[in-house]
Input
Amino acid sequence: MNLSDISILFVDDDTDMRQSFDFFMRDNIKDLYLAKDGVEGLDLFYEYKPDIVIADVNMPVLNGIEMSKMIKEDNPDTPIMIISAKEDVNVLKKAIEIKIDTFITKPIVDTSLILEKLENFAKKIKNNNIIPYTNKKLLKMATTDQLTGLCNRYKINEILSSEKNRSNRFGTYFSIILIDIDNFKMVNDTYGHIVGDKVLVEFANIVQSASRVTDITGRWGGEEFIIILPQTTKTDAAILAKHIKDKINSFTFSTNKKQSASFGIAEYQPNKNILEVIKKADTALYKAKKLGKNRICIS
Output
């Protein structure tokens, strides 16, 4: 495996350092993700699962050692490079304790040293038969709904688990929106499944385009869709749901008709049961259907 096949997460609170690393590495690797602190670094790690992590030690909110420890607990094979000052002997000891793979001291004068270490990491990944994102086609097939291109249920469950773990660690929250197309059986019965599939794709495109960059959209099953909204209360989730509902109501589908959908919303709080939260969202969705459809209900 070459560096050009590798994705890297670089975490440093120094803007100049992030910009310099971006300039230095962007053309040498496949993907580069930049974070300004450990919390943002964890978010990017669990969202993109980069092959290698490079982190500064001294950062606000969550430092590099604490962030690396959390990553190593769930992903022990992920190579991590820590950057710190020469006099930080205690930091070096902590890095060894949590099995950090390598240590670079500041200031970084010889950039070829980093390249050499990254190339060694690339060889290590290959020799350990770790398949980071080198086979993205297979990964996409396994985690993407074939019809709509959204996350499939397998991927959504993985993301829900990740969001639950993050919520429990940091005391944050997130919300779930379940969406069901109203009277979709009538679409299939009247126009056939080919047109029905087109309606599903059009609906998925509306949901995805109307959602925020940080939201995760997926097909939950059949004509039911799901949105995971990190660090979002159910009240704020309802605002987004209203925006999506309006977009759906104003769109003319392949049936040459308007379409509507019902929404159920629930909020996850730290250390709760994720299945109970999904059940609450589903109950709210059922209530929206029972009240006449084309509406939003919050659990």
The first strand starts at residue 7 and ends at 11.
